[in-house]
Design a protein that fits this description.
Elements: H1 7-19, H2 22-29, H3 33-47, E1 52-55, E2 58-61, H4 63-92, E3 97-101, H5 103-108, H6 110-120, E4 126-130, H7 133-141, E5 147-150, E6 160-173, H8 188-192, E7 197-199, H9 204-214, E8 225-227, H10 230-238, E9 244-247, H11 248-257, E10 261-263, E11 270-278, H12 287-298
Parallel strand pairs: 3-4, 3-5, 7-8
Antiparallel strand pairs: 1-2, 5-11, 6-9, 6-10, 6-11
Pfam families: HTH_1 (PF00126), LysR_substrate (PF03466)
Domain HTH lysR-type: 5-62
Keywords: DNA-binding, Transcription, Transcription regulation
Length: 302
Amino acid sequence: MAQPPDLESLQLLVHVADQGSLTAAAAELGISQPSASKRLSRLERRLGLRLLDRTRRGSALTADGALVTGWARRVLDDLTALSDGAAALHRARTAQLSVAASLTIAEYLLPAWIGELRRADPDLHVGLQVTNSARVCELARHGEVDLGFIESPGRPSGLRSRAVAGDRLVLVAPPGHRWTRRRRPVEPSEVAGTPLITREAGSGTRQAAAQALAAHGLAPVPPLLELGSSTAVRNAVVAGAGPALISELVVTADLAAGTLAEIEIAGMTVERSLRAVWRPGTDPAGPAAALLAQARRRAGKA
């Protein structure tokens, strides 16, 4: 591959996967259908892969296309994270409360916690950095944030911490996957031996899954895909790329709607505590203490 794919083509591919139609994807991006078709054909030539099956009824991802789409989502998510992170760093310079949070907490829990806090204090300025759990701990250890929130299993070393909520990882697959047709739960050894769609190294979700398998004397095989956010993992599973162990918070609506199916694992549950972390030798004070109290109150831990 002489040149990497351009971002516009990757964005178009992701929209085709989401819309199920090249025409609808082109309309969403404000380009003509012929231009979109040429752009995807150019992407296929550049990669040396057939990404779409084109029929009169629409465009469907090939198996290669589903994998490439998962990687494309990661690239686009990482680009968004870069932009958002730079903006967060800028906001944090003048923030009254500086917070770092892992991606799942930041997306599914923290908005409600901060929203309640700001209703009580509308002038409160919160600077938020969204990253994986390992980086959150690093920021907290160096005093770069007042408070961090992580998904990693256990208590992190070199930090004070307190449980603020609970979570469960669930094994999910798209309807029609071979695991959904089984009458019995899958064995932990089969989960460990199957390449899954996972978060990147350093994420709390990935650490929790590995720890649960280790309790059965198992180590997971290399992943099918490594993606930079739980939402990207969820989207790849919905697209049919493969199964994943993922936070229940991320897929609750999909399980209810039947977009994804939960697969029971024999004799294995993956439950974890979501924790607030801060520097040792200190106690959260002011807005940080209020945010910690709000998080615990929402989870019924106050």
